[in-house]
Automatic annotation (TrEMBL):
PANTHER family assigned to the protein according to its UniProt record, in alphabetical order: SLL0590 PROTEIN, SMALL-CONDUCTANCE MECHANOSENSITIVE CHANNEL
Domain of life per record: Bacteria
A matching Pfam family: MS_channel_2nd
Organism name: Seongchinamella sediminis
Keyword presence, Signal: no
Protein name: Small-conductance mechanosensitive channel
Length: 354
């Protein structure tokens, strides 16, 4: 009985070490991730991997094993790690290399809209092995970095993009009339430099593409929907039927009767100017909330870094300036120092909220 008790007690240091390692790793991981949005730090991931491996070694060395047994356990652990790396290296190393490549190219960042052959969404995080996007359904989707490297990725430029819609109309309406009406619809929803293209001559209809430029890239879904609404309203209000000649209706209609919905105001909200896009209560604010938060955090960090660099330049310039040029430099330095303090407080508050 005493032997068994001593044997069990000999395992207590190892059990205590195991519990301590788990707690330390959990607390360290929580501390490193606290308030972190957007980029997942490669340093943090490498540090956690190294600490985990160290914790495993500590647990092994605290177990009541002989030198021979401990050596065998370490050898077995080495074989297992080697086998895992060999079996998973195809995807593991490939995704890691792809992640480094995406960071080097830096074609997109948190907050950007990206479109691949099968997915569309707003980037929330970029990790070394995966990229996370927020879809139009507000869901978070993880894409392996290798997928983004092997497939073409379209990035919506932050300075603006083209919004367009395609529809088919009959041959009985002249294309010049349609072009004028569609351009009016594009202008009415706030698009600049509107254009209309004839993209195809089908058997029973003509396919048109209408589009224009917008710099409101954070409201793509709203503007696309608004463009389609304006197309419907403009064509219907000008007596153009949006049906192809193949349209079949089982009711008997007067040949002069057109299939049009009930009339509506071209601007239902008199308080809202035509073409204006409301900044609040848009679907994008709810759908891409995490991506917007990541983008805002990235912008604040970038501004903070630039402001600190400018402060260093001003400090050097003030030391070498004379009395006539020193005063404006000192005013700029004081104003910039206040801005740096505000940015630091804002970033700290954002981390606390997250």
């Amino acid at each position: 009985m005493t032997f068994e008790t001593d044997r069990l007690l000999s395992f207590l240091p190892g059990l205590a070490a195991l519990v301590a390692v788990i707690l330390v790793l959990a607390l360290l991981n929580f501390w490193l991730r606290r308030g972190q949005t957007g980029e997942i730090s490669v340093t943090r991931q490498a540090l956690m991997l190294l600490l985990t491996a160290t914790g495993v070694l500590i647990v092994i060395f605290t177990l009541p094993l002989s030198e021979v047994s401990r050596g065998q356990v370490l050898s077995l652990l080495g074989i297992v790690i080697t086998a895992v790396i060999a079996l998973s290296s195809t995807t593991f190393v490939a995704n890691a290399m792809a992640g480094l490549m995406l960071r080097a190219v830096n074609s997109f960042k948190p907050g950007d809209f990206i479109r691949s052959p099968n997915f569309f969404g707003k980037v929330t995080e970029r990790g070394i092995f995966h990229t996370e996007i927020q879809t139009e359904d507000r869901d978070l989707m993880t894409l392996p970095n290798m997928y983004l490297v092997n497939n073409p990725v379209t990035v919506v430029h932050h300075s603006g993009t083209i919004i367009s819609a395609t529809l088919s109309l009959g041959y009985d309406v002249h294309h010049a009339t349609i072009e004028q009406l569609l351009n009016e619809a594009a202008e009415a929803c706030g698009l600049t430099d509107p254009f209309t293209l004839v993209v195809d001559l089908n058997d029973f209809s003509v396919s048109y593409r209408v589009g224009g430029f917008t710099d409101e890239v954070n409201q793509l879904l709203t503007i696309k929907s608004k463009l389609r609404k304006k197309i419907l309203s403009t064509l219907h209000n000008n007596g153009v039927e949006i049906v192809s000649p193949a349209f079949m209706n089982q009711r008997q209609l007067d040949p002069e009767q057109k299939v049009l919905p009930a009339g509506e105001s071209t601007n239902p909200d008199p308080e809202q100017p035509a073409g204006a896009v409301q900044q609040e209560n848009t679907p994008e604010a709810m759908i891409f909330d995490k991506a917007d938060s990541a983008a805002e955090s990235e912008q604040l960090k970038t501004e903070l870094e630039q402001s600190r660099e400018r402060l260093k330049e001003l400090s050097t310039a003030i030391k070498s300036s004379d009395d006539s040029t020193r005063e404006p430099l000192e005013r700029e330095q004081a104003s910039l120092a206040q801005r740096v303090e505000e940015l630091s407080e804002t970033i700290a508050a954002s981390k606390a909220e997250n």
